[in-house]
Specification:
alpha+beta, four-stranded antiparallel sheet, three-stranded antiparallel sheet, 18% helix
Length: 147
């Protein structure tokens, strides 16, 4: 029992330090579970990003439905981790699935309802991405992402 308490105290003490060095723990199923390290710099296609969701009506509804947990982002959202699949200049088509520059993206089918039967709202319309825009997806079909 004393070893468990010692380990717990060490973990609690090291967590703020790890956070300062960009270390994050992901327990969400929308990307691989594990320990992640943030790195500064421009975002590239194929990389994973950590970001705060925009505080808008879509995100507020998602929070009410329990798609993600409360956190420290504006609007009381938890930061999300997603994979960047398109950046500036890419053509993104969203219909019943996602296509980037004419190529269908695997596991990108749009769902009509969530796991509790609530109707899902299509938030993105097809377009060519502009400067500072990107399109990000989770690695599971039911991920809360750019779709």
């Amino acid at each position: 029992m004393y070893k468990i308490i010692k380990v717990s105290i060490i973990v609690i003490a090291l967590t703020p330090i790890a956070h300062l060095y960009g270390i994050r723990l992901n327990l969400s199923s929308s990307v691989p579970v594990g320990i992640w390290r943030l790195k500064p710099g421009p975002v590239k296609k194929g990389e994973f990003i950590l970001f705060c969701p925009e505080d808008n009506s879509y995100s507020q509804l998602a929070k009410q439905r329990g798609y993600f947990q409360p956190g420290w982002c504006p609007g009381n959202f938890r930061a999300l981790i997603k994979k960047v699949v398109a950046v500036q200049g890419y053509e993104v088509q969203v219909s019943n699935h996602v296509e980037i520059n004419g190529q269908a993206i695997e596991n990108s089918d749009l769902l009509n309802k969530d796991h509790t039967g609530n109707a899902l709202i299509k938030a993105f319309n097809s377009s060519r991405l502009k400067k500072n825009e990107l399109f990000a997806l989770g690695t599971s079909e039911d991920s809360f992402d750019s779709r």
